Amino acid sequence: MKKTLYFSAMMIILISLALTTSCNKKKDMESIIPQNDYTQTAEPTTEQDPPKPQDTTVDEANVESQIKENEQIIHGVTADVNGDNKDEKIEIVQVSILPQDQNGSGELEGKVRITSGSTVKEATFIKKPQGLTGIMSDVEILDIDGDGVKDVFITTSEAGSPFTLNYFFIYNYKTDESFSFNVDNKLTFFAKGFKFKYVGKGILDILNDSYNFKAEINLINDSGYSSSDETSNEQYSRSWVEPVPSEIGQDSRLSLVEKDGSIEIKVPLPVYGAATSDLIGELDLYYCANKDFVPEMRRFEVFSFTNGAKEKIGEGVIK
User: Fold this and answer.
1) 209 lies in a domain?
2) What share of the chain is helix, strand, coil (3-state, %, to 5)?
3) What's the total number of domains in the chain?
4) Is residue 270 part of a domain?
5) How far apart, in whole angstroms, are the C-alpha atoms of residue 264 and residue 318?
6) Which of 300, 205, 197, 291 is nearest to 243 (CA)?
7) Does the pTM of the predicted model rise above 0.70?
8) Most exposed: 56, 167, 175, 306, by fewest CB within 10 Å?
């Protein structure tokens, strides 16, 4: 009996020890296993007001005021440019465009602004750096394309050597069409078609086979002329027509002229001899606006400067 009780007591003690050891191991395992992120307690947060939207409202009145401060009306005239027998107000406006940074020089923009009742139309005819020549040199109002309604013709200038360079802009208010004439590849091709040949005794032939054109320039009174035919041949056989509209004189400048009841645009080109300092002639090229309001070459006239006078020596028709 005693043995049985003893055995039972020993069994109880062993079972108790086994249970105690198992619990301790479970606690140890829990202490080394990292906690799941989703079970972590979130840190307390402080509520903040949402950011206020930025004020992007544009002060239109202020913008309009700044634009007007940069505008200057430099020419104004009235004329009927839409065929309603009522005059429209035509203004040439110069706009000063401020530089985007301190190192910039800014720009000048030239606009033609036409007001007819409550309708206002604008067209930009030039943009150029500030500090150079102005935006225009002349304005004329005539029917350029022959549609019975007057158009706007603006001449612009650019500093050149030895002559001031001239370009033009035309605008049809009725159709809202315009054309700017500055660099013209056709003009360069046209000028290169003229060849020069010194034939002796102070006579220089100017020829253009495309238009069956031939004329003579007398060089005897030219400042660069030499009585030596060899020297003159070397100098004047290199003569050329400069393909740039130039203001050669008061009567030799880009302008509108009337011919047989229609309006032509006269574009003077200088003819140089031995050098750009040796002006020996002038070639006047005439344009007419076609039905698309684009100027086309129609004819030309050639002049020589002999004995201190301008003398016409030939003309040609461009087909």
Assistant:
1) yes
2) 20, 45, 35
3) 2
4) yes
5) 14
6) 300
7) yes
8) 56
